[in-house]
Write a structure and sequence with these properties.
Its EC number is 4.1.1.31. This is phosphoenolpyruvate carboxylase. It catalyses: oxaloacetate + phosphate = phosphoenolpyruvate + hydrogencarbonate. The protein is mainly alpha-helical. The chain is built from 44 helices and 8 strands. Helix 30 links the parallel strand 7 and strand 8. Helix 4 crosses helix 7, helix 11 packs across helix 14 and helix 42 runs antiparallel to helix 44. The two termini are 54 Å apart.
């Protein structure tokens, strides 16, 4: 197809926006003089490759001999450039990787080459070209016209193979997935709301992309003017569209990550790019321990048998995306993955494409906003749904992979089914710290709900097992049990015959399992009755009341199969079932109880006042301990029903009564937040005894704030010095350390270092007293609250602090990322298991003494800087609440817990989650980086040689490297120009200079951090992550601008805008535009129509783009 066939006689110069190219005269001269008529594709391909070489001086092999095929007017149209046979465009990538500058350019080239031949909508092509390649509007128009006329080839892969000699990298899949989802969505948007809205969305994106290219504040103002001119309904549609596109981008990324992982697993290669820092393949870990680190296979096996990782699901911060949408996103993800399968047929492809469009439209048509806050029971149901969907089957599948990996290093034995490798706990319905909605009744409900769900899962699976174990041969022990059950079944009205038919006596395994099924049925129905009405006619004896009862008949079947030579059958579904029972028990998860120490003090104080012995609260720590130990050693009850109780005191005591009432395996630990002294622990021990808890829960002190972390080792030493308590714990103790509040209290730098030192000291104290200490890490999903890649987080912990035993929180906002799909569940279990094993068998290096001294010095400076800004700056709270959406956080209805521990108060009473959320929304991330720059500047200015030491620490000390890398990643997500827009619109003018000072600190800190990492640009060592983040930027920028101007309209009643007429058109017969119906979804808003929903949608969209809420 010659150029003359495109809209008249368009020459090569018109086909290229020459203003965007360096060396334009030379390039155009070559085209004019050598090629009178040639393909526009050929010209673009030629110029782009030439441009890469000219601008970056790569001197790519064979590039000088790259030429275009001459064609005549009458020649058959050509669709591909014809380079020399030995030329490969992948040489660009190879050269770029060597200099760490140009890998993204290769991706852009691939994007253009793939899209130009595909059947994408013209506007989608326009948008994609302009946002990725920064081409101008006029330049793209010819390509659009060509794309309309080109025939679609077999697949994008086929096009790439023809267009680009050599292999197409799997990394390019991300752009391909992203482009497909965007194309489908834009078509749907136009169908539902009309072309005007679609064009508005595209124009908003283009302005954002232009801002991202030059960071010109004028572009943000232009974008703000466009957004504020929209009527309420159209504003909602635009905000909803960008939030939806970010969710689709996340899905494309997840499918791409899974694709990359499959490729790497197939190759057995985990050493390329940056994957070694984020992946932790179990087999690779075993081989490394045995091959490189010279551990024996038996040592690995023994360590694994004694290892436990307990994953504790928490509700807060709650996933901001509604469960209904998460399920639709899961189906979109599956469709996308299947569309690119190698063995897909044309019919399958067409049907999957239709399904993909259907699910995208269904997600867009679903109201994203929770109209009422979730209850703790709702949060529990949402969290437990992952067990039904992925975890239940994922655990035995993962444990089978462990067996395979062990076999591959020479261990011809399976991991014992009762090895506690993976355990699950929950704070949902048990975490009452500052959450008045978690009552004793709620705790009772969630425990019964979990037991009901467990019984349901077991009940549905036992039937499958009965069909599988149809064998007649068994050992004498099983035969005797089967005969006994057959005789007793004639007298028993509730038996297997009621479910299907009588089990033949010559099928003994089915006879035994039918009795298991009957008891599971009774167990399930009793839980259902207790949950509904608190009573049940089914006696407890007819149910399974403990895990030993449940396991016994299953173990009997297993032993019998092995004894009869049927071990392969025993090691099939029966082994999986045994492992599920050992992992999940009868309660599915164990619920932890968390309460503030002051609440226990209030109860004990009420008791001592009632007894007439004074106020417990006013006693010294020594007197408290003396009295508590005296009562713990005695047997008299301390109080009766006549104890005067406030509502708060009754709540605490009733919680202990629920613990006493329910089965002990329903609960895990009793965690005391804000713990400071041994008396905090002893008080809980006493209250458990007074409320008749038969099997007391282990009591876990939680140390959170900087001062508490510093004092924690001394407090634990005093606790272990108490003979009564040391006998009580029997050599096992758990301590929780909090990352969220410590970071809010002192800043990320100082908190991270104090957490590191506290763990070392706590382990040392425990060893001195002969106690094995388990560290419970209360990590958040965000870097500001201790989050980060699992593998790195574990391997950067101090030596000897994990020792095969680890508890860690899995925050509500990251549960979907960790367990939303089977492959995600498998990967999560693998990462935790492999990293924990590696840390125990090959601990990280301990920091040198000079490193410690430097860290101590920097921590003091970082804390002073952080607190000087956050707590001592007189108008900081005013600035914070003006410059961020903190005040509006609660309107998202994403959690059951209030955002503050106390209704009134400043930063101190604000929870860590909304504190991080507010700064994340504005992309300023102040809690993460504040203090780092001051600390680095101080030590470098003091002695320039300290810069070299910091680089040495970065290269040799995992803890310090992880700290720096995570902050660098946060800087890559940040944008001070966006924060400046919030300041300009929302902060009083006399505080603008304060914001400017903070942004100057931001830039200085970023510069110092890059010096230490020895990087020229952010994420220089991780180009794949850099690409992923860049793909999101323009989406997020549009939402940031929309949010800032919406906040302005909400907060400033004098701010007025002139609205344009309706843009959105509905394709239905309704008389109202579809956008007006969206406004009516929130009829009780306190603000002008549409503003509140627009604001919430921007919050959700930005959270999706940043991939966290707090």
């Amino acid at each position: 197809m010659g150029l003359q066939n495109l809209n008249g006689n368009i020459d090569a110069e018109q086909a290229i926006d020459t203003k965007s190219m360096d060396q334009k005269d030379d390039l155009l001269h070559q085209i004019r003089t050598k090629y009178t008529v040639c393909s526009a594709i050929e010209i673009k391909f030629y110029c782009l490759v030439k441009l890469i070489d000219v601008v970056f001086h790569l001197k790519i092999p064979h590039i000088q001999s790259l030429s275009l095929r001459r064609s005549t007017v009458h020649a058959k149209p050509t669709l591909t450039p014809v380079p020399p046979s030995n030329f490969k465009v992948t040489a660009i990538l190879e050269k770029a990787n060597a200099i760490r500058q140009l890998s993204h350019v290769y991706k852009l080239l691939i994007l253009w080459l793939s899209l130009v031949h595909s059947k994408y909508d013209a506007n989608a092509i326009n948008l994609l070209f302009r946002r990725r390649l920064r081409w101008k509007k006029g330049e793209v128009c010819i390509i659009i016209k060509m794309a309309r006329n080109l025939e679609k080839m077999a697949s994008i892969d086929a096009q790439l193979r023809l267009l680009v000699p050599g292999k197409v990298s799997e990394d390019d899949k991300l752009i391909e997935y992203d482009a497909l989802l965007l194309d489908r969505f834009l078509d749907i948007l136009q169908d539902l709301h009309g072309e005007d809205i679609k064009e508005t969305v595209q124009e908003c994106y283009e302005l954002s992309a232009e801002y991202e290219g030059k960071h010109d504040p004028q572009k943000l103002e232009e974008l703000g003017s466009m957004i504020t001119s929209l009527d309420p309904g159209d504003s909602i549609v635009v905000a909803k569209s960008f939030a939806h596109m970010l969710n689709l981008a996340n899905l494309a990324e997840e499918v791409q990550i899974a694709y990359r992982r499959r490729i790497k697993l197939k190759k057995g290669d985990f050493a390329d790019e940056n994957s070694a820092t984020t992946e932790s393949d179990i087999e690779e870990t075993f081989k490394r321990l045995v091959g490189e680190l010279k551990k024996s296979p038996e040592e690995v096996f023994d360590a694994l048998k004694n290892q436990t990782v307990d994953l504790v699901f928490t509700a807060h911060p709650t996933q901001s995306v509604r469960r209904s949408l998460l399920q639709k996103h899961g189906r979109i993800r599956n469709c996308l993955a299947q569309l690119y399968a190698k063995d897909i047929t044309p019919d399958d492809k067409q049907e999957l494409d239709e399904a993909l469009q259907r699910e995208i439209q269904a997600a867009f048509r679903t109201d994203e906003i929770r109209r009422t806050p979730p209850t703790p029971q709702d949060e529990m149901r949402a969290g437990m749904s992952y067990f039904h969907e992925t975890i239940w089957k994922g655990v035995p599948k993962f444990l089978r992979r462990v067996d395979t990996a062990l076999r591959n290093i020479g261990i011809n034995e399976r991991l014992p089914y009762n090895a506690p490798l993976i355990q699950f706990s929950s704070w949902m319905g048990g975490d009452r710290d500052g959450n008045p909605r978690v009552t004793p009744e709620v705790t009772r409900d969630v425990c019964l709900l979990a037991r009901l769900m467990a019984a349901n899962l077991y009940y549905s699976q036992i039937e499958d097992l009965m069909f599988e174990l149809s064998m007649w041969r068994c050992n004498d022990e099983l035969r005797a049990r089967a005969d006994e059950l057959q005789r007793s079944s004639k007298k028993d009205s509730k038996h297997y015959i009621e479910f299907w038919k009588q089990v033949p006596p010559n099928e003994p395994y089915r006879v035994v399992l039918s009795d298991v099924r009957d008891k599971l049925y009774q167990t399930r129905e009793r839980s259902r009755n207790l949950l509904a009405s608190a009573t049940s006619d089914i006696p407890e004896e007819a149910t399974f009341t403990n895990i030993e009862q449940f396991l016994e008949p299953l173990e009997l079947c297993y032993r019998s199969l092995c004894a009869c030579g049927d071990r392969p059958i025993a090691d099939g579904s029966l082994l999986d079932f045994l492992r599920q029972v050992s992992t999940f028990g009868l309660s599915l998860v164990r619920v932890d109880i968390r309460q503030e120490s002051d609440r226990h003090t209030d109860v004990v104080d009420a008791i001592t006042n009632h007894l007439g012995i004074g106020s417990y609260r006013d006693w010294s720590e020594e007197r408290k301990q003396e009295w508590l130990l005296s009562e713990l050693s005695g047997k008299r009850p301390l109080f009766g029903s006549d104890l005067p109780k406030t509502e708060e005191i009754a709540d605490v005591l009733n919680t202990f009564n629920v613990i006493a009432e329910l089965a002990s395996d329903s609960f895990g630990a009793y965690i005391i937040s804000m713990a400071t002294a041994p008396s905090d622990v002893l008080a809980v021990e006493l209250l458990q005894r007074e409320c008749h808890v038969k099997k007391p829960l282990r009591v876990v002190p939680l140390f959170e704030k900087l001062a508490d972390l510093e004092a924690a080792p001394a407090a634990l030493d005093r606790l272990f010095s108490i003979d009564w308590y040391r006998d009580r714990v029997k050599g096992m103790q758990e301590v929780m350390i909090g990352y969220s509040d410590s970071g809010k209290d002192a800043g990320r730098f100082s908190a991270g270092w104090q957490l590191y030192k506290a763990q070392e000291d706590l382990i040392k104290v425990a060893k001195e007293h002969g106690v094995k200490l388990t560290m419970f890490h209360g990590r958040g999903g965000t870097v500001g609250r201790g989050g980060g890649p699992t593998h790195l987080a574990i391997l950067s912990q101090p030596p000897e602090t994990i020792h095969g035993s680890l508890r860690v929180t899995v925050q509500g906002e990251v549960i979907e990322q960790s367990f939303g799909e089977e492959h995600l569940c498998f990967r999560t279990l693998q990462r935790f298991t492999a990293a924990t094993l590696e840390h125990g068998m090959h601990p990280p290096v301990s920091p040198k003494s000079e490193w410690r001294a430097l860290m101590d010095e920097m921590a003091v400076v970082a804390t002073e800087k952080y607190r000087a800004i956050v707590f001592q700056e007189p108008r900081f709270v005013e600035y914070f609440r003006g410059a961020t959406p903190e005040l509006e956080y609660g309107r998202m209805n994403i959690g059951s817990r209030p955002s503050k521990r106390k209704p009134s108060g400043g930063i101190e009473s604000l929870r860590a989650i909304p504190w991080i959320f507010a700064w994340t929304q504005t992309r300023f991330h102040l809690p993460v980086w504040l203090g780092f720059g001051a600390a680095f500047k101080h030590v470098i200015k003091k002695d320039i040689r300290n810069l070299q030491m910091l680089r040495e620490m970065y290269n040799e000390w995992p803890f310090f490297r992880v700290t720096i890398d995570l902050v660098e990643m946060v800087f890559a997500k940040g944008d001070p120009g966006i924060a400046a827009l919030y300041d300009k619109l929302l902060v009083s003018e006399d505080l603008w200079s304060f914001g400017e000072r903070l942004r100057a600190d931001y830039e200085e800190t970023k510069s110092l951090l890059l010096q230490i990492a020895n990087h020229k640009d952010l994420l220089e060592g991780d180009p794949y992550l850099k690409q992923r983040l860049r793909l999101r930027d323009s989406y997020i920028t549009t939402l940031n601008v929309c949010q800032a101007y919406t906040l302005k309209r909400i907060r400033d009643t004098n701010f007025t805008v002139e609205l344009r007429p309706h843009l959105s058109k509905d394709i239905t017969e309704s008389s109202k535009p579809a956008s007006e119906e969206l406004v009516l979804l929130n009829p009780t808003s306190d603000y002008a129509p549409g503003l509140e929903d627009t604001l919430i949608l921007t919050m959700k969209g930005i959270a999706a783009g940043m991939q966290n809420t707090g």
